[in-house]
Amino acid sequence: MSTTTETTEARDERGKAPAGERIADWADGRLGIYSLAKANMRKIFPDHWSFMLGEICMYSFIIIILTGVYLTLFFHPSMNEVEYHGAYVPLQGQLMSEAFSSTLHISFEVRGGLLIRQIHHWAALIFLAAMFVHMMRVFFTGAFRKPREVNWLFGFLLFVLGMFTGFTGYSLPDDLLSGTGVRFMQGVLLSVPVVGTYLSMFLFGGEFPGGDFVARFYSVHILLLPGIMLGLMVAHLILVFYHKHTQYAGPGRTEKNVVGMPLLPVYMAKAGGFFFLVFGVIAVIAAVAQINPIWVLGPYRPDQVSTGAQPDWYMGFAEGFVRAMPGWEIDFWGHTLVLGVFIPIVIFPVALGIIAVWPFLESWVTGDKREHHILDRPRNAPTRTAFGVAWITMYMIGLVGGGNDLWATHFHLSINAVTWFVRIGLFVGPVLAFIVTKRICLGLQRRDKDKVLHGRETGTIKRLPHGEFIEIHEPLSQEQLHTLTSHEQYEPVAIGASVDENGVERKVKGSEKLRAKLSESFYGEDGQIAKPTVEEYKEITSGHGHH
Fold first, then answer.
1. 3-state DSSP assignment of residue 208
2. What mean pLDDT comes out for the span 217-230?
């Protein structure tokens, strides 16, 4: 009887279900929302602090979009010259572009405009920094392996497109600093053989600075690049959902399961709180740390260069290559080729591309076509870890080169000394970093092997009856033993027999020889420390020579 009463009360006067339920039924019948939510809302996500790096990327990107929409309401992407009569008195009466004038208007006359500008700029810097660190986490732990190679490429493209989106946005105010950066880019375009002049004329609508580049950069900055990035981010997240989430090795964790928290309600609640935490931190930074004060620099003029002109950090290493390169020029068929600019700009995409293709190179060297959902500890992949550190070292040395004048003035050094440090460091630094990192990884592997076989050092000293002093070792727990021994070790690929089954000499391809050499360097005696075997462990722990 009570059931009948409740059902009757739940319906309206016409005997139909409530409006909200009818709308939900209508939407589910056309979009399949209920079945989609039922299948995915209980998806399990592992709980580890390093996975938050990707969330910082996503949240800062959302903040960039939100603040960018607000700024577009007041910004005028025009290079038409106007006389300034705004609130900033020191620049009143000066001629400037509408772009610069509207940026001053946003900064001094729009309520909250300066704060929104600074949040937008800081969020862009943090987005790219988080992308950089997130990609390195994925790289060092081997999370890019099958089936995630495509998702690795999506992340790489997001990072590269983010760099150019930041550059176009940085150039929009048309101030002296950003104008100097655009002038640098125009010099890069002019260094391209044969078509450089045409590219420059096309981009700027005539001789530099032309009258169109702000409007063109504006379209690229707010529409083209963000649209592509949004599509890539959605595809990236879809693939994260489609593939099982990676997880660190531990008891109960296999290639076929995921141990963690469900998406609803636990993970969503934590993610929502983390979004507001990221937003709050960026807002505090923007409120207390001034960035890009264009009113101090003034409007751009082609006959002036601001002192200490530096790009944002993510473009610094590209400029560092150019600043470190000698000013080489050659005459070829009546044309001057500016190799001092062209060669570094060719190296720039090559240096980025090496990281992009690494998953495919590693898969080819190992011959491993299996799916991997358990992450590596960086020490257990010494060659990969050493290469990643070498790449970061090259990046950071290039970044020093991009600010060689500031390093010289702030630390009272010769700018020539800083430049020569960068020139030498770009070749020597990555090699030293590779060697040192690999030796550290191998040393950590040896320590792990010793801990497995002998246990953890307790610091407790015991004297035996015959007078010998020994240190008591505490056996590791099963969980610790699993963590230290669960990683897989590859055998180096061998070239194989030089003759076939008929005794005929087989021609060995160059690619086969190269693969064998790389495999030996990756997984030979100098590339990894053999894990302790079960027999070794039993012999040690049985009491023969173990304290």
1. coil
2. 94
Are 455 and 473 a contacting pair, CB within 8 Å?
yes
* DSSP per-residue letters across 368-394: --S---EEPPGGGSHHHHHHHHHHHHH
- Average pLDDT estimate for 159-173: 93
Q: Compute and round to an integer the Cα radius of gyration of the chain.
A: 30
- Model pLDDT for residues 28-61, shown as the tens digit of each residue: 777 777 666 666 677 788 888 888 999 999 999 9
Structure tokens at 132: 């950089």
144 contacts 122 by C-beta, under 8 angstroms: no
Identify which of 491, 487, 486 has the alpha carbon closest to the alpha carbon of residue 525. 491
Find the angle CA(77)-CA(174)-CA(337) to the nearest 5 degrees.
110
Q: Could you tell me which of 184, 138, 147 has the C-alpha nearest to residue 318?
A: 184
Q: By CB neighbour count within 10 A (0-12 exposed, 13-18 middle, 19+ buried), where does 211 fall?
A: middle
User: Domain locations in the chain?
Assistant: 53-306, 442-492+509-544
Query: pLDDT tens digits for 94-139?
Result: 999 999 999 999 999 999 999 999 999 999 999 999 999 999 999 9
pLDDT average, residue stretch 69-79: 94
Q: With b meaning 16 or more CB within 10 Å and e meaning fewer, what string describes 48-84?
A: eeebbbbbbbbbbbbbbeebbebbeeebbbbbeebeb
Question: With contact defined as beta carbons under 8 Å apart, do 476 and 537 qualify?
Answer: no
pLDDT of residue 140: 96
Contacts of 479 (CB under 8 A, 6+ apart): 250, 251
- Exposure b/e, 132-147, CB count within 10 A at least 16 = b: bebbbbbbbbbbbbee
Residue 478 CB coordination number (10 Å): 9
At the topology level, CATH places domain 53-306 in Cytochrome Bc1 Complex; Chain C (1.20.810)
Neighbours of 187 (CB within 10 A): 16
